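Consortium newsletter contribution from the modelling node. Members have asked for a concrete example of what our holo predictions look like. Here is one, prepared for the zinc ion complex that several groups have been discussing at recent meetings.
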Amino acid sequence: MKACSLCEEQAKKSRNSKPHENLIPVDDRRIFGGKKPQRFEEQDYQCTTCKTKFTHSTNANDIPWTMWRG
Ligand SMILES: [Zn+2]
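And here is the predicted structure:
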């Protein structure tokens, strides 16, 4: 299924931005590393409209919002 417009926009958003209104968390938050600044977190989300999945990462070396295209 094609990603909805909100998801297309989400893929361009910054690390600190919130998930859009139809994007809900799935599974548990994953925490990597110990102390800051090495520590980062990942959280998976899925859109209730178009079913597109995202992974949000706080790792500065990662893409902030990775869209998983099916
Ligand atoms: Zn969507």
